[in-house]
Design a protein that fits this description.
The protein is an alpha+beta fold. It has seven helices and twelve strands. Strand 3 and strand 4 form a beta hairpin.
Length: 313
């Protein structure tokens, strides 16, 4: 049985959703397999942390766990407290693979049905039948298998489907769910190891790739935008890159470096269906050696103004 998810994340049982998310992000960043290639224990711990977050980030599953209805693996709890459910299994394994999709073991017979986006499905069986007429324990399913899917930043923000080629040569389009982030998991039912009770599942861990100039802040996209001195002083429309493609942005006259402008609905998709925004920070680009500009500044009467007066200096 998996460890208590609250203990795994290092949060109290009454922790808020924000606290749980913050703890998960910190641990996922620290334990990410790309940062611990020579430390298999860190990779195993990364899988445990992700599994714990999957359970606690789901309001229904968290409530059921707190009431004792399911265990840390998401399996129904026995009325006598015996945990007999099948855990995630398989661990988190990395192997080189094309297209950023890493296979933990050789592929078996993959089906075409996948389910359980961003959640831990229950195990292959529940309790052994006490109080329900008894009965033999059902055959155990095969072990789950772990994969890692690298997703471009823009694709994650726009939830663009990712085409994946499986080991048997078949391709499937995985639909990214709103709110996807590094460490999120997709469960593909029946695509794990074979077993007497059927195939296990495949756990696809999402790894959002960094971008050259975009950054993410929760559901918002951040961008530092260089503007010329003329554009900052006189204002006007400038072309700005977004995850959906370039758009025109109106720069107000008299804008200084550090001014933040908002592009509504150009961020990441939220779980509720709406999107975050893109926050554009203006960065006035002053030429390093422009004789004409230098001559103008020397004769400009406004140059005597102290922009730091409000700071008391």
């Amino acid at each position: 049985m998996a460890a208590d998810p609250y203990s795994v994340l290092g949060v109290a049982r009454g922790a808020s959703e924000a606290d749980i998310k913050k703890a998960y992000r910190q641990l996922a960043k620290e334990l990410h397999p790309d940062r611990n290639r020579d430390n298999p224990k860190a990779a195993e711990r990364f899988g445990q942390v992700t599994a714990a977050y999957d359970l606690l980030s789901d309001k229904d599953k968290r409530a059921r766990f707190d009431r004792g209805e399911i265990d840390a693996d998401g399996n129904p709890s026995s009325p006598f407290g015996f945990g007999t459910g099948r855990g995630a299994g398989g661990g988190f394994r990395q192997n080189a693979g094309a297209g950023g999709f890493d296979f933990g073991t050789d592929s078996s017979d993959f089906g075409d049905i996948f389910e359980g986006l961003f959640g831990r499905a229950t195990g292959g069986f529940s309790s052994s039948g006490f109080g329900r007429g008894g009965g033999a324990r059902p055959p155990q399913k095969g072990a789950d298998r772990a994969y890692r899917l690298r997703v471009p930043f823009e694709d994650a923000a726009t939830c663009k489907p990712q085409r994946v080629t499986l080991a048997d040569g078949k391709t499937i389009d995985l639909k990214l769910a709103p709110g996807v982030e590094t460490g999120s998991q997709m469960r593909l039912a029946g695509k794990g190891e074979p077993g007497p009770g059927g195939n296990g599942d495949a756990l696809v861990t999402i790894d959002i790739q960094p971008h050259a100039f975009f950054k993410r802040d929760c559901d918002n996209v951040l961008l530092d935008l260089p503007v010329s001195l003329v554009e900052a002083v006189a204002g006007g429309k400038v072309k700005v890159p977004t995850v959906d493609g370039p758009v025109m942005l109106n720069v107000p006259a008299g804008s200084s470096s550090g001014r933040v402008l908002r592009l509504k609905g150009k961020g990441f998709h939220r779980k509720g269906g709406e999107r975050g925004d893109q926050l554009v920070t203006l960065m006035v680009d002053v030429p390093a050696d422009d004789a004409e500009l230098r001559a103008f500044v020397e004769t400009w009467s406004g140059g005597a103004r102290n922009p730091r007066a409000a700071l008391g200096v």
